[in-house]
Amino acid sequence: MASHWILGPGAIGRLLAHSLSPLAATTLIGRRALPERQALTTPEGELRAQFLNILTVAQLASETHEPPAFLHITTKAMAAEAALEGIANAIPSSTPLVLWQNGFLAQPRITQTWPGPVLCATTTDGAYLSGDDSVVHAGRGHTFVGDLNNQHDELAEALAQTLTQAGLAATQVADIRQRLWQKLAVNAAINPLVALHGVRNGELRGEAYAGRVIAVVKEVAAIMLAEGITPPNIGQGEEAWLALVWQVVENTANNKASMLQDVEARRPTERGAILGPLIESAQRHGLACEELRGLDDELATLEESFNR
């Protein structure tokens, strides 16, 4: 079984480590030391604990390690390129990367600059941290794997099979760009609002928030049309996008979105990776984006307050 390094011990990083460790040599890499005994709470409420192989970036730089078959980068979007640069000397430039970032910021940049294969993964699995030694798998979803230039189908298929075997249902796809933009659309309608109001995903269905969700989706649907992104589930226009958002809200009702986790920890959010590409696209196509701009401004103001 191929070996895996996971760069970024956040919620998705630790979920991957828990899932892959029983099957393959897996190393979780972060900037600071973490307890090797890590706990996972399953969507069914079962508590599991196992010892994970955990290294710091500094340890990686000072020791010699057999390079991995896959390097998964599970940092926040705005940190992905710097994180990769920080360990690039420890791996061959031919090493396949797997990018798990939200939004559509890091993926095209790293695909253009990394000499080896670059796969992109987008997942609807929900997870959040509950301490330095614990992660909650809040909801089962599905992961799609592919590359932006459709050059690495076999590699993506092999990874999808491994993830599925590890308990994270996955499929290799040729349209990962479409999938990433679809995930971007969903994240834009959910993450900023739950982060700003401190609520779980499922609460967006309530009267206090549903109207704004609909208003955001209206703008997003127009942007998707301009970008040539097909509406999900063989649907039509705005209704299809709204149906997808409500479906994800229902499936992840108890999930604490990553952007909400960032706000609670008083750290920068991924607004640039999620809202940024949509606002830029709207400007390029001459489309309205008042709701998206409003969310971005509100998040920027909130982030500024963290430093006071």
TrEMBL record:
Belongs to the ketopantoate reductase family. Residues 6-149 form the Ketopantoate reductase N-terminal domain. It catalyses: (R)-pantoate + NADP(+) = 2-dehydropantoate + NADPH + H(+). Gene3D superfamilies: N-(1-d-carboxylethyl)-l-norvaline Dehydrogenase, domain 2, NAD(P)-binding Rossmann-like Domain. GO terms for molecular function: 2-dehydropantoate 2-reductase activity. The keyword Ribonucleoprotein does not apply. Pfam families: ApbA, ApbA_C. Catalyzes the NADPH-dependent reduction of ketopantoate into pantoic acid. This is 2-dehydropantoate 2-reductase. It is an enzyme of class 1 (oxidoreductase). Keywords: NADP, Oxidoreductase, Pantothenate biosynthesis. Its EC number is 1.1.1.169. InterPro entries: 6-PGluconate_DH-like_C_sf (IPR008927), 6PGD_dom2 (IPR013328), ApbA (IPR003710), Ketopantoate_reductase (IPR050838), KPA_reductase (IPR013752), KPR_N (IPR013332), NAD(P)-bd_dom_sf (IPR036291). Residues 175-293 form the Ketopantoate reductase C-terminal domain. Pathway: Cofactor biosynthesis; (R)-pantothenate biosynthesis; (R)-pantoate from 3-methyl-2-oxobutanoate: step 2/2.
